[in-house]
Amino acid sequence: MTAFPRRAAIVAAVATTVYLALRVYWAAGGVLGLTVCAPGESDRAALASGCDADTAVLGFWPGWGAVGLAALAVGVVAAAPRRGTVTEAGLWGATAAFVVVSFPGHLLFQIPAGLAGRATDWRDVVHRLAQLGLALLLARVAVASAKSRRCGHDRRQGTSPVARWARRSAYAACALPVLGFSVPHLLWVLGIPFGASEQTLTEIRTDLDPATAIALCAVPALGGFVSLGLGMRWGRVLFGRRIPRMLALVPGAVVSAALTAYGVIGIALMTRDLSAGTATWTDLAREWSIFGTELVFLAWGLALSAATWGYHLAARDRCGTCERADDGVPPPAPSVTSPA
Questions:
Q1: What is the signed CA dihedral for 205, 210, 213, 217, rounded to 10 degrees?
Q2: How confident is the model at residue 4 (pLDDT cuts 50, 70, 90)?
Q3: Which of 52, 210, 248, 266 shows a CA-CA span of 20 to 30 A to 320?
Q4: Which superkingdom, per the lineage (predicted)?
């Protein structure tokens, strides 16, 4: 067992405590840095004031519910030095929660669009970047906690090929964003009503500027191609150099959690609208490509999760000494040179 890296835990503890204090401040009525603008708000004056955040009343989840999430993060970080599977599960659970609420997929499009001049709620963007940063800090502590429970021998990165099921998952994670997202959006931008009504098509073409349209079509396709590396040899060794394992695992885990959450939330909202009568099966049939995007998100997230897990199993660090001992073969004895 190796020493627990306390520096990572201290940084995460300070960051989560500061975030907890901010959420308590907002829940108690503070407005500094707070925004209550709805997604898609384009009124620059409203965005500048946080959409009258000083007069808004926060609901449970944006208020004290968020305080509870922040308190959970503080608690699991404080328990991290104890090292155990329960603590690590709590760290990974808090990591996933912060990834989901940060909506990292939206950030990929909002930030470039905002820098290009599109009206953007920068308070919300900065807040969600902070949440994503907290998720990465918590993941770092979780990884450090797991490593500290290992033996103290030198370890090497695994070189076994990924399993067949993981390779197939990588193929699916590559194809789904291209066929289920990039191609439909490209057709809509070109004015082809592929599974969308003329009214929706007009709204899409009016709302999307050229830079955002290009990003919507290109980024998912690029992400799908990169996902393919999780099941291929070039995803672990590129140009003769071994790719650091965490460089593939961290983005894969973050994006898969976000995509799965998008899909689940979207399907839940669709189900709610159907139950409430605000949407009908006829609407779904007319806009099948629009609503089908939610299913694409869910399938894409699950496929990427499986591919990432398969990559982890194949590339995880291994201890040659302990593996030989576990196989019933004693580790090689150190050579002894006889004195001359």
A1: 130
A2: low
A3: 248
A4: Bacteria
